[in-house]
Amino acid sequence: MIGYAFMGRVHSQAWRSVGAFFDLPLAPRMAVIAGRSKEQTEAAAAQLGWADVETDWRELIKRDDVQIVDICTPGDSHADIAIAALQAGKHVICEKPLANTVAEAEAMVRAAAAAPGKSMVAFNYRRVPAIALARRYVEEGRIGEIRHVRAAYLQDWIVDPEFPLVWRLQKDKAGSGALGDIGAHIVDAAQFITGENVVGVSALTETFIKERPLAAESAGLGASRAESTGQVTVDDAALFIGRLSGGGLASFEATRFAYGRKNAMRIEIFGSRGSLAFDFEAMNELWFSSGGGGFERILVTEPDHPYVGAWWPPGHGLGYEHTFTHEIKDFLEAVATGADPSPSFADGLRVQRVLEAVEQSAADGSRYTNVED
Amino acid sequence: MIGYAFMGRVHSQAWRSVGAFFDLPLAPRMAVIAGRSKEQTEAAAAQLGWADVETDWRELIKRDDVQIVDICTPGDSHADIAIAALQAGKHVICEKPLANTVAEAEAMVRAAAAAPGKSMVAFNYRRVPAIALARRYVEEGRIGEIRHVRAAYLQDWIVDPEFPLVWRLQKDKAGSGALGDIGAHIVDAAQFITGENVVGVSALTETFIKERPLAAESAGLGASRAESTGQVTVDDAALFIGRLSGGGLASFEATRFAYGRKNAMRIEIFGSRGSLAFDFEAMNELWFSSGGGGFERILVTEPDHPYVGAWWPPGHGLGYEHTFTHEIKDFLEAVATGADPSPSFADGLRVQRVLEAVEQSAADGSRYTNVED
Amino acid sequence: MIGYAFMGRVHSQAWRSVGAFFDLPLAPRMAVIAGRSKEQTEAAAAQLGWADVETDWRELIKRDDVQIVDICTPGDSHADIAIAALQAGKHVICEKPLANTVAEAEAMVRAAAAAPGKSMVAFNYRRVPAIALARRYVEEGRIGEIRHVRAAYLQDWIVDPEFPLVWRLQKDKAGSGALGDIGAHIVDAAQFITGENVVGVSALTETFIKERPLAAESAGLGASRAESTGQVTVDDAALFIGRLSGGGLASFEATRFAYGRKNAMRIEIFGSRGSLAFDFEAMNELWFSSGGGGFERILVTEPDHPYVGAWWPPGHGLGYEHTFTHEIKDFLEAVATGADPSPSFADGLRVQRVLEAVEQSAADGSRYTNVED
Amino acid sequence: MIGYAFMGRVHSQAWRSVGAFFDLPLAPRMAVIAGRSKEQTEAAAAQLGWADVETDWRELIKRDDVQIVDICTPGDSHADIAIAALQAGKHVICEKPLANTVAEAEAMVRAAAAAPGKSMVAFNYRRVPAIALARRYVEEGRIGEIRHVRAAYLQDWIVDPEFPLVWRLQKDKAGSGALGDIGAHIVDAAQFITGENVVGVSALTETFIKERPLAAESAGLGASRAESTGQVTVDDAALFIGRLSGGGLASFEATRFAYGRKNAMRIEIFGSRGSLAFDFEAMNELWFSSGGGGFERILVTEPDHPYVGAWWPPGHGLGYEHTFTHEIKDFLEAVATGADPSPSFADGLRVQRVLEAVEQSAADGSRYTNVED
Questions:
Q1: All chains having 3 or more CB pairs closer than 8 angstroms to chain A
Q2: CATH 3.30.360.10 residue spans of chain B
């Protein structure tokens, strides 16, 4: 694993737990974790259960005792690491967004196609049991032809203007703001559940707070408070509407300024014969309508629901971390059987192209912009 | 009153009931109702409690025993009737949308300015106690600066392709489809609650079902089934995103194809210090967040909530019809005191201009289109 | 009508409105209202739409222009008025609880049986569309054999110890407290929906605040504050568990001390094949489960739902008052067709006997007490 | 650890994960797991991460490399194991209910008092962050004096009469049915949150399905289907009402026949100044009312909420398993610091005495029965 921050912690928990709940074809060994600071990486290794550490990801990739590389770093390093790992014959699981630009993502897709290893982009929300169930319902034809997708990912963690300028607010590190961080998830979820693509968009983006205090980590030593601010170079919020390949309409809203919404990753899908609704803040529930004035709140904890049978009895809900456990279970199965994992780097590129079209539209008077194929 | 269909029925109930609950400065008398068919209008008068009937609205306007004219007809006749009534010295309350075009609405605003009578456009959702309370909270500064408005009006009554071509699906009668019928409500509600204007939009519209069976009422006699279809000439759905005068972003979605949603007129407003959420399908509730991870579900039935004290004890909810009772109460008070009723025809025109910008944007590649002042 | 307070107002609104929405076999005329104070009764008549007033209910009963007597007074006068009215050949609709004692209720049942007029006790919650739909589902066998009823009626209007000693807190007027006022409703609703009887109970009751300030209305002139308190002689809360005639278990809780619950009249019914749940604070919704981990939230506003077709399009909810409109519509139909209205005085007596068993059990160490047949 | 079934799996996951999220004073080592079948215990050890196995719990207790014994067996063996382990100088964490009888529980409390080791009964629901937050609110006086507790634990896993006669339906193994299995949890939660005791109860219990097919595990070899049924010797459902030490009323309902409810462990607490509500089916939410007609839905995922800061950012919910992680974290801290863990065996005994009073009341015509001190 490369990276030991938020994503590193949650991936580690998944690697540590997956074998206790799923019958796996491969028994993962948590061999080595890489990070720049030796001290911090060693502390992380001890806490998270990794046997060894490296301070340079290139060294990690060279190791013979490593077959799978799990990339948990910010987006600006994804392409370099993933391509090198694939070329070294490793299997790669890479955090989303796949890359910070379409060009990088394309290079990654080419590398994945050329390499023997398997590759997957970690859109973990596909592994929320309720979202996997939604996909199943659409595949089974239960909602008919898709008319509308309404997706939003609402957070509020930077509402306070005094919240510091962390790396996620810097374009060179993060690529974009709410758009790439959380907008990517709802675009992927919409495409995953419907089985359709977003083919064009019209967009608005906004940065409400344009200057913020430097984070302690990035503030220069001895800088006075007045000097300690920096420009926010990414979007705080991105709104876009668009068309789906099947003729439906879609709306998306990704924002970090939705006061009171903590992680409201929501999607509603309206079809000609039924509809579905989901909100991650109640992640064990899927709402389904098939007529008669009603919406059924399905508690997605039944044995025949996706992933759920491996865990607890009905009604004993899962949490955020389990989406990663499911992701790794699926990845290990693909590696073992030689199947192509999903979502593939190509799926990640597809999302990246939607995000690029969003940025182009926003820069071009919201003009409707086709998503490249 | 002119018109006795759906809107006529609900307005009549409001006229009949308002005096029993509110201490009014004027006691309304339900003098006369006008409709084209004498027989049907007489039946309606008997059922709805009107003392007399006219079969020509021009005759109604001439009558000395009429001081207030309530226009409940489709949008194509609003301008003619309202202008004539105002010129005849009557007070006018007119159903929304104010008119089918901006030009008509402008003429109505001019007539209202020139006439002695009071005029109001019947955006009844302003009189949902929860929406009036939301407005109060914004005015009191409880949510701070507005960052986001997320509004949707979701219905599903024409999901079935066999649903007939009623007047609401014909451009010459209705002006537009979901846009003018229900989109108008959420634009008005957004502007009302925030106290801001929508200043520009980018839009997509769609007609999913382009041809429908003629309604019994409009089908030619003896036409065979195959001949009995007609073109749908309005939008089934309209999506638009835009900017508010205070710098916030807004998204709107009006559709009649949201399977399972019956009358989900929803609005969420996120500010710098708090937020609000409402869904008409639970019309007695307002959700409010002001920190700490929580959203408070306020049951808007307390004595100090808008309008509610006149009705029942706390927890005894109101229904759809009461929004009209409140509207008429406010209108009668304005007439009695000489105050200007709200929403005024100018407010109606303002909404109309937003709708026009939506249509222009949709016709022009979703390009961001400023709303005329 | 006799009585013009809270119940008088809501019944009047129902009499005034019913004809505009339902095709009635009889056109009601709001002839006369009775109250003790001439001045107040005249004001009420003017506001509520009654043509004439009486200050003695006995005079009202004598009038030839009165065929139906609607009793909206406190429970201590129900028996006298209802029996006199029935003996005078009138049809009678009587507010609940039917009487303050079983003996009175029995006398009323006998009078009803002997008289030509129709009689009904006004358990209005039976006419909530969602509750009527729940009854329909049980009758259709959709939930199978009843295992559990969980019913609660939660209010909080006397949580404040300074709330005054109104008539509802005095045993001589009200008969009992939460038990008869709101407990009666949930007992009736449980029996109505399930079609079964409560056959025995074990109960606890409590009066949390035993002394309260006298209400302005009842305080002696010139009494000092210290002298102006009186004993609360009824229960603040009543809890009871029991058995149903079909073998299921039931729990009931009626309280005026449920801080934050305003009118939470709730009932959950669990059967061998399905279940139902309702909360009056969201009165347009019924929840239904029939397997698969889900509960369907049915918005009870569809044309084929009970009573609803007469009102508005789907999704346009009803309020508290409409339960009374439906009650009067059903009563008028029964009067016109000669059918026996439901709930009958015998149904009211049945509820009274359950309440009596509750009081006996509470007085006898919560011992399980059979409900008399 | 002793036992590797459902509870063994979830406890193992907690032991395995706790160190990655909490800074612990002690680093637990998963030394050895005991079970009767060598083969099955070895498979469990491999899957769940235990280093060694024993097939006799007495051998496990003798081992020097064991300092803590975690008892995950059915209730009939709790007393023997816990007492032996305590006498052997081990720390003991024991699944609930503490024992199958009050006598056993008393012996365990005596053993705990006499032994040097620490002991805790595993009422894991105390470690749901929302329930811990509810306790905090009560302690802070936010809801005032307790008037009502309404608790229910609703499941439906044996609704089907063909569901087999597993050990939980046999009195000799399980002690009681819904009462001890899930009723124990709500009694403990009520006492924990309020800080009060249940001092007396009146109860009804029922066994709806009195005979069931034998489970494969317990069916005799060669028994025909007709012979393969057995008596259900425990309650399917237990309802009881009672009084709290502070003067409030409480109602409890524990059932396995609540069709459609999977793990609805619910508690509402109404005080003189506020109230709280919780439902485990939405375990990351706590509802709180403190006036004005509102109930606040608190998403219990904020950094300052109990336990939550150690996990993910706000809005990223926890699941069932994390209650056990918290339990073990608290237990390890108590062991390290020498503090007495909570809930203690004495707390477990207190719950046991309430359950015993429930059984006595149910057997004695629901008579109100005091809970022994």
A1: B, C, D
A2: 127-317+340-363
- The pLDDT assigned to A215 comes to 75
Q: What is the pLDDT of residues D234-270, one digit of tens each?
A: 999 999 999 999 999 999 999 999 999 999 999 999 9
Comma-separated ranges of CATH 3.40.50.720 domains in chain A = 6-125
φ and ψ of A23, to 5 deg? -80, 105
**H helix intervals, chain A:** 6-21, 38-48, 57-62, 78-87, 102-114, 129-139, 171-174, 178, 184-194, 322-337, 345-363
**Are D63 and D57 in contact, with CB atoms under 8 Å apart?**
no
Residue of B147, B241, B259 lying closest to A208 (CB–CB): B147
**D173 pLDDT higher than 80:** yes
The per-residue pLDDT for range B152-206, each reduced to its tens digit, is: 999 999 999 999 999 999 999 999 999 999 999 999 999 999 999 999 999 999 9
CA distance C265 to chain A (A): 21
Q: How far is C273 from chain B (nearest CA, A)?
A: 25
Interface test with D, best of A181, A182, A284 (most D CBs within 10 A): A284
- 3-state class percentages of chain C: helix first, strand second, coil last, to nearest 5: 40, 25, 40
Interface of A with C (CB under 8 A): 288, 292-302, 305, 314
Which residues lie below 8 Å from residue D167, measured CB to CB, with a gap of 6+?
D74, D173, D174, D215, D218
pLDDT at position D223 is: 46
Cβ separation D255–C147 shorter than 8 A: yes
Q: B6-125 domain in CATH 3.40.50.450? A: no
The answer to whether C275 contacts D260, with C-beta atoms less than 8 Å apart, is: yes
Mean pLDDT of A348-368: 97
The mean pLDDT of D133-143, rounded to a whole number, is 98
Percentage of chain D surpassing pLDDT 70? Answer: 97
In CATH terms, the fold of domain B127-317+340-363 is Dihydrodipicolinate Reductase; domain 2 (3.30.360)
Q: Residue D219 above 50 pLDDT?
A: no
Smallest Cβ–Cβ distance between C297 and the set A294, A300, A305 belongs to A294
CATH of domain C127-318+341-363: 3.30.360.10
Residues contacting residue B209 through CB under 8 Å, at least 6 positions apart: B158, B161, B232, B236
Collapsing DSSP to helix, strand or coil, A207 comes out as: coil
**Chain C residues whose beta carbon lies within 8 Å of the beta carbon of residue D178:** none
CB contact under 8 Å between D322 and A318, yes or no, is: no
Contact pairs from chain A to chain B, CB under 8 Å: 144
With a cut of 50, list the residues of chain C below it in pLDDT: 218-224
Distance from CA of A304 to the nearest CA of D (A): 14
